[in-house]
Amino acid sequence: MKRSGHLSLKSFASRTLSLSLLLATLAPRAFAAQPDAKVLELIEATYNPAITASTNADGFSLTGCAINQLVIRGKDPITGQDRLVQVKHYLPADGASLDQAPSVLVLPPTGGENILDRGYANEICQQGLHALLVQSWENDTFVELDPAMHDRGALRALSAIRHVVEYLDTNRAPNIGILGTSVGAISATFAMGVERRITAGALIVGGVGMSDIIAVSTEKGLTALRAQRMQSFGFKSVEDYRKALAAKITIEPRDFIGYSGPKKVLQILASKDTTVPTFAQEDLAAAFEESQAEHVVITHKDDHFKTILHSSFFFKSRIVKFLKRSLN
Fold first, then answer.
1. Which of 86, 161, 249, 258 would be 32's cystine partner, CB 3.0–4.6 Å?
2. What does residue 226 show for φ and ψ, rounded to 5 degrees?
3. C-alpha dihedral over 96, 260, 133, 272, to 10 degrees?
4. Half-sphere exposure of residue 186: CA atoms within 13 angstroms, side-chain side
5. Can you tell me the distance from the alpha carbon of 156 to that of 197, in angstroms, rounded to the nearest whole number?
6. What is the pTM for the complete model shown?
């Protein structure tokens, strides 16, 4: 990899993928290695499992599933202050209670809950599972120039997910799965690695290699943030920016794959993606292949957004059936 000069997106992606494949060849078990002790200590020190929760009936979904609005109050892992997690709970169409049927957390992409996420939740509840659509948590969109913000964001996402798991555990949910899209898939990968109670997942266009993704992603927010940082800190190239990110980002979801035990995973991979670059999705697939109880990959030959749409229209039933089979 070049150490100076401007590094194009295509060149950076190609070189990073080649390096990743080389490392996978030389050390095929590396992806199941023990995470860094300091990162584990940070997660443990900042997470408080204590929660309170309240639910209110909120009508019915388009497919007739009852919906509850769930509010979970817990501690923010960064400030230690109370913060809320907003969840839309779709109850199974057959009326099964939380202790009678598996549950699936649904994590939306950047921008929050959308019609596609509600479509997954409807399909899940129609299949006799509980769907918990995680709508938001406080400070979930907080942006800073400091690259360490990405670690703080990861801790906040992990804490929010685990607080929903705590709620399910309190209600004796038998098995828990997770479905994430884009940044939701990245957060889901991290959560599955940390949280032993999540045993299956479906990940749509998620990837690993956080500094690489952030450095070259064409996502609107990350593109603007990259421009601001390069101007503010005087980075001369994308490679300089990537190295600065790598020095500050200590939480890498790839390091946790296999840590809390093998999972059953279905992965949707976009072969022409520049938002979560395809090489990052392929690296995730390589990591999962080494450590999971089951790993299914569906490759769609299109870009990020079109693959998300295609997955919702054509893969939704397959995704939900995979989760149902894996959790029963």
1. 258
2. -60, -45
3. -130
4. 25
5. 18
6. 0.89
